[in-house]
Design a protein that fits this description.
Layout (H helix, E strand, L loop, with lengths): L1 H21 L7 E2 L2 E2 L1 H18 L6 E2 L5 E22 L4 E9 L4 E10 L2 E8 L6 E8 L3 E23 L2 E29 L8 H4 L4 E2 L3 E16 L6 H6 L3 E22 L2 E24 L1 E3 L11 E2 L4 E2 L6 E3 L11 E10 L4 E13 L2 E15 L4 E16 L1
Parallel strand pairs: 15-18
Antiparallel strand pairs: 1-2, 3-11, 4-5, 4-6, 4-22, 5-9, 6-7, 8-9, 9-10, 10-12, 12-13, 13-14, 14-19, 14-20, 16-17, 20-21, 21-22
Length: about 400
Amino acid sequence: MIRRIIICCLLCFMNAVTTLAQEPTDSVGTKDGKPNLMVRLQQGQQYLDNKAKAAVDPHYIEVPEKPWRVILRYKENVVDVDYSQSIDIAETNEHTDWNLRFEPPVASSVGFWVGYRGTGFSYSKSITKNAGRYYSFSSTGAKYGFNFRLRRFNTKDAKFSSTDYENGQTTGVSWDTVVSMPSPVWIRSVYINGYYVFNGRRYSQAAAYNQSVIQRRSAGSFLLGATWYQSSFDYADIRNVVYMIIGHGVYRAKVHQGNLGVGYGYNWVPLRGLVVNVMAMPTISVYNRVKAYRYETNYGLSPKDPVDDYGDWNKETKTWANGKTHKSILMVKESGNQFDYWDIEPEVEYSMFRLNLDLRLGIAYHWKDFFLGVQAQYNNFNYKNDQCKVNIFDAYARVSLGVRL
């Protein structure tokens, strides 16, 4: 039944289009003095084409006559997350710096992009297992560019390293090993970037990154950029208790960061149809908010074996039988029978002037109605508070093959 309804609707639509095409029009494509739908579409396309051509210097930037593009893409995205903490034991003047490093598998994907001029729609399918999910969207014009990226993944594999200090001097004891977290760590990052091109009449980022225009002569430009970045780092599962203890109870951290920067991009055209773009933009955070969620526990760290005069733990008063609030243990000797934890108020800190970096490289070659492109981008984001420090490195490389229609 549903199939019959769909077929009937399609037949009705085709009949309407045929009728519209056969309706009598005058010499300017109008019916009863009004432009028909096809004429209106042609007029709108002509307006957009004229506007695109008027925005650039034709001696430097060519706006192709064919505005539509279909692009096939292969992309690889990598993320590296470094999570650092410090442990201080005041009684013995000991100090330990430790670091967890998470490197999920390279996210390889294949997909396509379909669009008109600098704006379009893309879809990609991941071909890598356990690499998480990755979404992106971009739009460019003569004077502006916009990018959106979302990455979410979880992993149990980590590289753990630590260095011990005593009285301010290294003890020579250090660890560097691969560990498997008892429960996965979830990491999510959202990246939104917009930029303004000062010399948009002669320089185009789009020439190298989405091929909506063609750079004919070498040119460069200063760019003004704004970035909004937010991410979260979460291993709240109580099975990760050891890492919570050595991490001062922190089990989740969220950051919201707004950045402004001035960069420079240059398009080098060594021969007709070939363009090589390099762009660098350091940014400074003008808004940096870190929110750390913590568990309080009935255990703390000690360089000595725990003693047994604490008695039972009272969950209501959150004290041991001897009146103490914490029982000292070694990291590998937590008492599962009496271990307790509870949420405390999250800590929120604001800071400014964090330095981040945006680097891009793009190469494109055009011949007839076809083009081949290679693009790469690197971003570094960092944030910290009194409890932790996190550095996130996010980069991708992409190969694309397209045709103009």
